[in-house]
Every structure is written in structure tokens, then in C-alpha cells.
Amino acid sequence: MAVISLTFSTDPQLTGAAVNDSVYYIDSGVTTATSNDVINIGTIQAFTGGGTEFIILVDTGSLNFTMPTAADYVFFSKNNEVNMGSLIGYYANVKFVNDSTEEAELYATAAEISESSK
């Protein structure tokens, strides 16, 4: 297991990055990126730092790549094996209003509801 650190001036967690997310980058010299230009760095293991310097520790495994520069575009992706569920902790209030003077019929509505905590 090879672990590298990537330093940011703003907290990556504010973008939704979390432990076990995948980290990728695209070289800043690429003007029209394709999937071949996306370079997999590894998986986030931890966050450290604070103030003006935020560091993420990334497990690169056996990946072979050139380290990104400060000008490169770094982005994160959720692990779809873990994050396949529905939204948790959100709610909605719905009100159907028909302000027409003509008769109208609502054919159907649906909602997926599941208890998110006990």
C-alpha cells in the first residue's frame, strides 16, 4: 500500500469528498478531455490539516501515474458499491393545487419512503 498526500487551499470535504471516495485528475494541458485523459490516483484514506492547508491521504495501491500539479483538475467520485441507496435524512412537503376552473383528475403520484434511523 502506497500512501501519498495531496494538499489543497480549501477543504475538499466541503465538496462532498469523504473517506473511501476515489480520487482522479485531468492534466491542465488537456483542452477537451476524454475518458482516456482521466487518471485514477487512488482512494481517500484520511483528511488532515486545516486553516489554509488541507491534506488528503490517498492510498494509490499499485497504480502507476505521474503526480498531479497545482494546475491540474482534481476531482472525487463516490464508491458506487457503498452509495447505491436512496437519500437519507431529507424530507419533502408536497401540496397539489389545481387553480383551474375546469374539472381535472390526478392520475397518480408516487413516493419512495423508508425509515432512515431508529
Can you walk through the features of this model?
This protein has strands at about 5-10, 20-25, 40-50, 55-60, 75. With about 120 residues, it is mostly beta strands. The protein has a domain at about 5-75. A 5-stranded antiparallel beta sheet has the order 1-4-3-2-5, with no helix packed on it. Strand 3 and strand 4 (about 55-60) form a beta hairpin. It is elongated, with a radius of gyration of 22 Å.
Which terms would index this structure?
5-stranded antiparallel sheet; elongated; 0% helix; 30% strand
**Main sheet attributes: strand count, strand direction, barrel closure:** 5 strands, antiparallel
Describe the global form. Answer: elongated
Number of beta strands: 5
Structural class: mainly beta
Instruction: Give the number of helices.
Output: 0
Distance between the termini: 38 Å
Order of helices and strands: EEEEE
List unreliable stretches of 5+ residues: none
Measured on Cα atoms, how large is the radius of gyration? 22 Å
Average predicted local confidence, pLDDT: 85
Strand-residue fraction?
A: 25-35%
Summarize the structure.
The protein is an all-beta fold and 118 residues long. The chain has strands at residues 3-8, 22-26, 39-50, 53-59, 73-77. Strands 1-4-3-2-5 form a five-stranded antiparallel sheet, with no helix packed on it.
